[in-house]
Amino acid sequence: MILSTIEYQHPTLSGGVLRYVKDGIDLHAGIESGEMVLFTAGQFAFQLPDKATKGQEALTVAAPNTDLTLAKSIETAKRHEPVIPVVSIYREYDTDDLSQPRNKRIRLTMTSAKITTMTVTLTNTWKDLTNRRFMRRLYTTKTHPGLKYL
Question: Residues near 11 by Cβ (< 8 Å), separated by ≥ 6?
């Protein structure tokens, strides 16, 4: 049986990370570093990104808003969003071997969160390369003094 997991990383989260598994019981499983970690059980709905050439692909996660832990954590993290993005990592595990993920992890950035009284819906996408400015480094006279003579 395949178990789907999601991990959210952000400095404002409790311990810097939230980990969940789509199952009825908690899961102790290995991650890429070899460390065994705990994934909290929950009933989630995952919609994986399509493999297509149509542009921005998204992983959508819907979870029941029963204990408010996820909702409160995400609300806190989203306040710091532009500066420190919430990183999302999707992994699949085979129940026969929980020492490592079944496939390579999918690392995404959370782009939106819709929180209602019943559900928490999170949309995660690849880094938005389309809207990134061309020159990542900003050349100023402070960092490059020779520019003032041009």
Answer: 80, 84
